[in-house]
Design a protein that fits this description.
The complex is a heterotrimer of chains A (about 260), B (about 350) and C (about 300). Helix content of chain A is about 40%, strand content about 25%. Chain A has about 260 residues and is an alpha/beta fold. In chain A, about 45% of the residues are buried. The model of chain A has no long low-confidence stretch (mean pLDDT about 90). The chains are: A alpha/beta (about 260), B mainly alpha (about 350), C mainly alpha (about 300).
Chain lengths: ~260, ~350, ~300
């Protein structure tokens, strides 16, 4: 069953056609990777899906319903949650508080009820904190809960950001270069975590440059170059695809 | 939660201690400036929420103070007697919203009841904040600063240039505001102590509400918006709505301060809307530690009191200007920023964690 | 309204528009070099005017103006060196508050030096009642001075930024500071120079317009707001557009007294500012891409 469907999506920035009539789909329960040389438009595509940018034309359908044109917070409420290429943790909060933000769409205490500290808000806060700890436990970072988020090591921050996204209970998780800046051991741990996330029933769509990670865990790979879709297939087929090789390595290697 | 109650109790004790001090040293006239300081502090803590927690600058908050104060002043001093024949006016009069009271020059005035005018003033400020806040908060950085500055100046020009609002002289002869039977907000000498406690009681109530807000889901969302707005939005927080809510909340606090201080002083003048007042409020929040409610409150207590007592003389504005510069140059997170207090706490408790997270 | 009154409004609008444009250009120069909005820009204008008037009691007008410009330029340099130079990646909010604080300090110092009175230089040629006749429209010679000197300043700045090495260095810094530094341009000095240049231009403007508008210790702030309005109206960073935008604001303000009570005249600029910020923050002549380029 298709969870995310992108059709004829286009986005232009002045003279640059960043995304050029791209169409693809992400099946439910799959792990799909988005690869391509630098400047191919990968982060732009993420920004279009998550609502940060508005597309010029084309449509994005999630679970059968259109989501293009919605504001980012509405898209998150629908079940599409993302992480960021350059870690965007909240600097003035602990790791646990960061993860608790992920529970925002699943809670309802507002300004007035917050100011009056009504009983239901206090119960809700306890539930939020408990769920936050559960998520951190699942990811193996429960001991970092009370640490100042931005003082953690880079690899730990990546996992905290992942926890924050998981706390939203997403149906589709967009991971923007989850292994960027991680060493080999951390990358392997990240791959394992993504595998466990898939077992929870969450569909994963990730951008990544680390080919070993991509080839190991993905069910399907989408290749972009200069804003256009070059290929969409299973990992092994992508490795042999001459168009893909040409785009990454140049003309001569493709013909070899 | 318990920590919050203890903090409030300590502060309440401080308030009582100060009053007893003035009684013992026979200087109860100080209570006047202290009471005025309380009302200004109400504005300050609301502004602290906006600047420190939601991360939005407002250089025009004196405008909301004046909207509250001037609407209340106008309604309680404007004589409706000439319009007694008017249908709408007579309906109001019969429903008890209007009241008759002696005017300055003899004769009776038909004006709006202080309570009703108070409500109308606050609702007016709320409505204006709601309408203005939407487009204004879409702006960022210096555009936001300039837009709020512009808003404050428009209010200033309006109150300064409109004869019905007293122009340069402002509005005076504002009657007391009855809070409870026997408890009036007024400048009368005999009620000085009572007014002092009413004012600071309201401040404590305000602090209590805001502390609750800070430690609630909404407060956490505001911190997120301040820390990384795009990430907050991506996590499902409707950032525009939250910023607007905080803006309106801080405007309401400012308007309430304006209404109450106007009734306490018996009047209001256009200088309350001046740019320097707005800048002063921002300076106090900045030096208090931006995202530090208690810090802003203490700084408000000290600086407003000293300024009102005249200790700064003609250098009043220069001092607040210098404070702004010095704080922003050397301690941009304020003097009492969280890390300083955190370090002090560690020092006192002697509880040093093992390194090796 | 008859045709004479119409042209009087136009002339008044152009006169004030020139001074607003000069303040706006001052904003743009510093903004282009640093990305900072210098809230104290209006105070440079005030200082120039006040200093020139004080010095005029000792030396003739042209010398007084030159000296006032020099003094204000030094003040501009000092401000940059003392308060701005050593900040490391300051946030926008911090810079706003610092420059507001600086503007307050300058204003309060001016109050304590010169008191509350208004001052003005004498008319450069003729007197306050002399008037030149241009096809039936009577224009004070001072207006010719203001517009004339203003035009010369804009032309010189154009030449400076496009044809001199230092000017090109400043433009390079505004496009890409790190790349400029890699080319050997001393970015810190460029910043200091931008403050000096803005101060000089502001001071010149304040001096030449003082016979018509008078200066006092607090003339700076309203000028800063109107200058900022004009800068945003034309597109922040675009000084050629600032000239046109200045004329627009000056004329709109001038004609507003025909329809509104004079007390609200100052509010016109703010309404325009709010309007442009809400509707089109990149300015009438700006596009979002040009805004990024920060062209002169």
């Amino acid at each position: 069953m298709t969870l995310l469907s992108v059709q004829e999506l286009s986005k232009r920035f002045g003279g640059l056609q960043a995304i050029d009539r791209v169409s693809f789909s992400v099946p439910q329960g799959a792990i799909k990777a988005l690869i391509g040389p630098n400047g191919a438009g990968k982060t732009t595509l993420f920004n279009l899906i998550s609502g940060v940018l508005e597309q010029d034309s084309g449509c994005i359908t999630f679970d059968g319903k259109p989501v293009h044109g919605l504001r980012p917070h509405q898209i998150a409420a629908k079940g599409i949650v993302r992480t960021f290429q350059h870690i965007r943790l909240f600097p003035n909060m602990t790791a646990l508080e960061n993860v608790m933000i992920g529970r925002h769409i699943h809670s309802r205490a507002g300004f007035v009820s917050g100011m009056l500290s009504l009983p239901f808000t206090r119960k809700e806060e306890k539930a939020i904190a408990r769920k936050g700890r559960e998520v951190m436990d699942f990811l193996g970072i429960a001991d970092l809960a009370d640490a100042d988020a931005t003082s953690l090591a880079y690899g730990q921050q990546r996992i905290v950001e992942l926890g924050r996204a998981l706390a939203c209970e997403p149906r589709l998780l967009l991971l923007d270069e989850p292994a960027a800046g991680l060493n080999m051991r951390e990358t392997a741990e990240m791959a394992a975590l993504i595998g466990r996330i898939r077992k929870l029933g969450i569909t994963v769509f990730l951008v990544e440059h680390d080919m070993s990670l991509v080839m190991n865990i993905s069910d399907e790979v989408l290749v972009l170059s200069y804003g256009q879709k070059i290929a969409e297939d299973r990992p092994l087929a992508i490795q042999k695809n001459s168009e893909v090789i040409k785009v990454y390595l140049g003309e001569d290697d493709a013909s070899n | 939660m318990r920590g919050r109650f203890i903090q409030i109790l300590v502060f309440a004790a401080l308030v009582v201690a100060i009053q007893l001090l003035t009684k013992v040293t026979d200087s109860s006239y100080h209570l006047i400036q202290l009471t005025m300081t309380a009302y200004y502090s109400l504005l300050i803590i609301g502004l602290c929420m906006l600047i420190g927690y939601a991360g939005q600058i407002s250089l025009g908050h004196a405008g909301f103070f004046c909207i509250g104060g001037y609407v209340a002043a106008f309604l309680t001093t404007h004589d409706l007697a000439p319009y007694k024949a008017n249908y709408f006016v007579s309906v109001l009069a019969r429903s008890g919203i209007l009241t008759v009271r002696p005017g300055l020059y003899g004769g009776d005035l038909l004006t709006v009841q202080p309570w009703a005018s108070c409500l109308i003033a606050i609702l007016t400020a709320l409505a204006i904040a709601w309408i203005v806040g939407g487009p204004v908060l879409k702006l960022k950085g210096h555009y936001l600063a300039m837009a709020t500055l512009g808003f404050g100046i428009i209010i200033y020009r309006i109150v300064l240039g409109t004869t019905a609002l007293g122009a340069a002289d402002g509005i005076s002869d504002v009657p007391p505001l009855r809070v409870l039977p026997g408890v009036d907000i007024s400048g009368s000498m005999s009620a000085r102590v009572m007014n002092y406690y009413v004012a600071w009681g309201l401040v404590i109530a305000g602090v209590f509400l805001l502390l609750n807000l800070i430690h609630s889901r909404a407060g956490r969302a505001l911190s997120a918006i301040h820390g990384a707005e795009d990430a907050a939005e991506a996590m499902g927080i409707p950032t525009a709505r939250y910023k607007l809510n905080t803006f309106v909340l801080s405007a309401v606090f400012a308007a309430i301060a304006g209404v109450l201080l106007t009734h306490y002083n018996g009047g209001i003048g256009p200088s309350e809307a001046s740019v320097m007042k707005s800048v002063r409020y921002v300076a106090i929040v900045a030096i208090g530690g931006m995202a530090n409610l208690w810090g802003s409150l203490f700084m408000s207590l000290i600086l407003n009191y000293l300024s009102l007592r005249g200790y700064f003389g003609t250098y009043d504005d220069a001092i607040f200007g210098s404070i702004l510069i010095l704080i922003m140059l050397f301690a941009p997170d304020g003097l009492l920023r969280r890390s300083v207090i955190g370090d002090l706490k560690l020092l006192i408790s002697g509880d040093v964690k093992e390194d090796g997270v | 309204m008859n045709i004479d009154l119409f042209f009087q409004y136009v002339v008044a609008g152009i006169t004030y528009g020139t001074i607003y444009a000069i303040v706006a250009i001052g904003f743009n120069i510093i903004y282009n070099a640093t990305g900072i909005i210098n809230f104290a820009q209006g105070e440079f204008v005030m200082l120039g005017g006040m200093t020139a008037v004080t010095l005029h009691s000792f030396i003739p007008v042209p010398a007084a103006i030159v000296a006032a410009v020099v003094v204000t330029t030094v003040v501009g340099a000092l401000i940059e060196i003392l308060f701005i130079r050593w900040l490391y990646k300051p946030s926008v909010l911090r810079m706003i508050i610092i420059t507001i604080g600086i503007s307050i300090l300058i204003r309060e110092t001016a109050l304590h030096i010169w008191g509350e009175g208004v001052r003005a230089l004498p008319y450069f040629s003729g007197s306050s009642v002399s008037a030149l006749n241009f096809w039936g429209v009577f224009i004070s010679p001072q207006v010719i001075w203001v517009v004339g000197i203003g035009a010369v300043v804009v032309a010189l700045l154009n030449i400076f930024f496009n044809y001199t090495i230092l000017g090109r260095q400043m433009r390079a810094c505004s496009y890409n500071r790190d790349a400029a530094r890699l080319c050997g341009i001393n970015a810190k000095n460029v910043v200091t120079f931008s403050f000096m240049l803005s101060a000089a231009i502001g001071a010149l403007g304040g001096s030449i317009v003082s016979p018509i508008t008078y200066v006092q210790y607090d003339s700076g702030t309203p000028l800063a707001i109107k200058g900022f309005t004009v800068a945003v109206l034309g597109g922040l960073g675009n000084s050629t557009a600032a000239v046109a935008a200045g004329m627009i604001l000056g004329i709109l303000e001038s004609f507003s007294i025909a329809v509104l009570p004079a007390a609200y005249k100052d509010a016109i600029a703010i309404l325009i500012l709010l309007g442009i910020l809400f509707v089109r923050p990149s300015g009438i002549f700006g596009t979002t891409e040009a805004a990024r380029l920060k062209e002169f």
